[in-house]
């Protein structure tokens, strides 16, 4: 069997393109993970400060935000609840976060640990496990859904 250069050109070109694309994927994934991590921290800071405006731009219009008591908020209901809250956060941490980018979606998990102080002086600790799903919309990552489970 005789093989000439023309018969080898296409497979070699295909292999080169495949290896080139494979090496580019982690760079995109890393940049996306960094962007999501930044948004998660901005969301945490806005939540801790009770700043609905800071959170609004991070949320998808179709947001489904589930609390640990099974209450589910839309974007409008969440922002209204933050703006009218009768408590403040004395501490709020997102511990041990993990971010996994899968196509145009990012799966974020962490432990939500904090303390709320209500206007009557009562303090309530919070210890939750959170699952957030972020969706890439254009060039921005938006929070699409959030679920909380008491620990």
From TrEMBL:
<feature type="domain" description="DUF4440">
    <location>
        <begin position="37"/>
        <end position="143"/>
    </location>
</feature>
<dbReference type="Pfam" id="PF14534">
    <property type="entry name" value="DUF4440"/>
</dbReference>
<feature type="signal peptide">
    <location>
        <begin position="1"/>
        <end position="29"/>
    </location>
</feature>
<dbReference type="InterPro" id="IPR027843">
    <property type="entry name" value="DUF4440"/>
</dbReference>
<dbReference type="InterPro" id="IPR032710">
    <property type="entry name" value="NTF2-like_dom_sf"/>
</dbReference>
<keyword id="KW-0732">Signal</keyword>
<protein>
    <recommendedName>
        <fullName>DUF4440 domain-containing protein</fullName>
    </recommendedName>
</protein>
């Amino acid at each position: 069997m005789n093989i000439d250069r023309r018969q080898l050109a296409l497979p070699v070109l295909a292999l080169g393109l495949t290896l080139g694309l494979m090496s580019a994927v982690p760079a995109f994934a890393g940049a996306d993970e960094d962007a999501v991590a930044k948004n998660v921290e901005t969301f945490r800071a806005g939540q801790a400060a009770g700043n609905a405006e800071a959170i609004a731009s991070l949320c998808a219009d179709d947001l489904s935000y589930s609390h640990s008591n099974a209450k589910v908020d839309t974007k409008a209901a969440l922002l209204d609840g933050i703006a009218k809250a009768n408590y403040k956060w004395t501490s709020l941490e997102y511990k041990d976060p993990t971010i996994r980018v899968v196509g145009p979606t990012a799966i974020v998990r962490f432990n939500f640990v904090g303390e709320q102080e209500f206007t009557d002086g009562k303090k309530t600790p919070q210890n939750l496990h959170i699952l957030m799903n972020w969706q890439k919309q254009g060039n921005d990552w938006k929070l699409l859904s959030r679920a909380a489970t008491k620990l």
